[in-house]
Amino acid sequence: MAGIKVFGNAASPSTRRVLLALHEKNLDFELVNVELKDGEHKKEPFLSRNPFGKVPAFEDGDLKLFESRAITQYIAHRYKSQGTNLLPADSKNIAHYATMSIGMEVEAHQFDPAASKLAWEQLFKHIYGLTTDQAVVAEEEAKLAKVLDVYEARLKEFKYLAGETFTLTELHHIPVIQYLLGTPTKKLFTERPRVNEWVAEITKRPASQKILQ
Questions:
Q1: pLDDT tens profile 173-184
Q2: Considering the entire predicted model, what is its pTM?
Q3: Which helix (H) or strand (E) holds 66?
Q4: What 8-state DSSP symbol labels residue 87?
């Protein structure tokens, strides 16, 4: 049986989300580069792996998956006993699992839309020779600030968003946060004390550092 393969781009936040989970689990894998600038993700053979033309795609032996957050959940469950536990300490406790699920949903639908647009405007546009739209930056920063206000309140009660242990909720945030720390948007994190501590904690993890290499 073949090993784990990730079909994506090392600079892509979604690909990094999967690589993070693999590093946290200390799993061996092969990263098969998909060149986004050349539009390889919109052509075969990649479309046979993800018909929606977005990285990453994933293989573990005969199993084929796409959608980064689904892949990380598979990794967390399939390799639960290896490396870092990415699920609640008592993953059989439905309430604890539901709390983590809320965190993942909030990340995907409240945090990431604004955060990803900010990364696109301030970083990725430059790669493609485009100009940052400061009006969009201001609009998305206002949206992200509201989310981070909720996080600040939550982090006054718990060490992490889903409770007292690091889980997939945190992991899903890391790639885009790493990018935003290199932009003026960093201020939205640093001006909120609990959020600032949380960001420092999750981005200094060994696995978080590995995806920057």
A1: 999 999 999 999
A2: 0.95
A3: strand 63-66
A4: S
Residue found by looking up tokens 């955060």 in the block:
115
Contact 160, 174 (CB under 8 A): no
Residue 84 amino acid letter: T
pLDDT at 96 over 90: yes
- Three-state DSSP class for residue 121: helix
Residues 6+ apart with CB under 8 A from 8: 14, 15, 18, 31, 32, 33, 34, 55, 56, 57
Q: Residue 165 in 3-state DSSP? A: coil
Residues with Cβ < 8 Å from 112, sequence gap 6 or more?
Answer: 172, 176
| Cα 50 to Cα 47, 68, 128, 155, 212, distances in angstroms | 5, 11, 24, 36, 25
